Amino acid sequence: MSVSSPIDRDASRRTSPISRLAWSVCNAIQLGFTLLWSAGCITLALAVYAVTRRPRLPLAMARRLWAPGLVAAAGARVEVEGRDRLDLGRPLLFAANHQSVIDIPTLFVALPIPLRFILKRELRRMPFLGWYVTAMGMVFIDRRASSEAIEALHAAARVLRAGASLVCFPEGTRSRAGVIRPFKNGAFAVAIEAQAPVVPVAILGAGAVLPADGFRVRPGTIRVRFGEPIPTAGLAAEDRTDLARRTREAIVRLQAGS
């Protein structure tokens, strides 16, 4: 039998039925805006891509139009730390913890460069979003098919070698309660193959703005902290597990503010 604390009971009393109803209505409006805004921005970006046949401008539209619109609609503010230590003119693999679906627009806002993501293959089948990420050359991983997953990792390495930067969420799924899950090491094999530095990225506050379970948006500050790049020059494929461990430890330190 659980016993609630006085603080919990006070918080429950402060959350009146009227307040809960108001938040429900507000979140329903925000959800509608999110769907319409995303569909509109993606349609416009795909139209631009159809004319130019180049992804650079549609990717910039995600960074300058789509993502800021979603972050603003959530009542969120993005604060960035440590970006000045990065050489954004070279290809980098950004490895971030994953709390919320708002992590992706947050990273678009935080980084002033074209970004491609390593994504779950299921996203490719989604209307609008799937069309956009496919056209932009995002990398899809099918964890159930090892041969396809290996080929996808080689494709990701080619993206890095071609000069583009990639973002991965090595936990493989969204975490709860701010606890970082163990990292999968596939993306780190990509960085080693391409000899691209790995940048640890700690995202704080995204789970409070938009939790992993349900669409319950609350205004707040999302902090994005970039760590020192971890070089991969001279590393071999068998070093990927150690590289994953070092990256995770760096993100934990960044979360703690050290």
Q: Specify the CATH architecture.
A: 3-Layer(aba) Sandwich
Secondary-structure element series: HHHEEHEHEHEHEHEH
State the helical fraction.
Answer: 40-55%
* Low-confidence runs: 1-13
Strand content: 5-15%
Number of strands: 7
**Tally of discrete structural domains:** 1
| Computed Rg | 19 Å
- Annotation field: number of helices: 9
Classified by CATH, the class is: Alpha Beta
pLDDT averaged residue by residue: 90
Task: Explain the overall architecture.
The protein has 258 residues and is an alpha/beta fold. It contains nine helices and seven strands. It has a seven-stranded mixed sheet with strand order 1-7-6-2-5-3-4, with helices on both faces. Strand 3, helix 5 (129-135) and strand 4 form a beta-alpha-beta unit. The longest helix has 36 residues, at 17-52. The radius of gyration is 19 Å and the shape is globular.
In short:
The chain is of the alpha/beta class and 258 residues long.
Topology:
Elements: H1 6-14, H2 17-52, H3 56-73, E1 76-81, E2 93-96, H4 103-110, E3 115-120, H5 129-135, E4 139-141, H6 146-161, E5 165-168, H7 186-194, E6 198-204, H8 206-209, E7 220-226, H9 240-255
Parallel strand pairs: 1-7, 2-5, 2-6, 3-4, 3-5
Antiparallel strand pairs: 6-7
Helix pairs in contact: 2-3, 2-5, 3-4, 6-7, 7-9
Characteristics:
single chain; 258 residues; alpha/beta; Glycerol-3-phosphate (1)-acyltransferase; seven-stranded mixed beta sheet; 9 helices
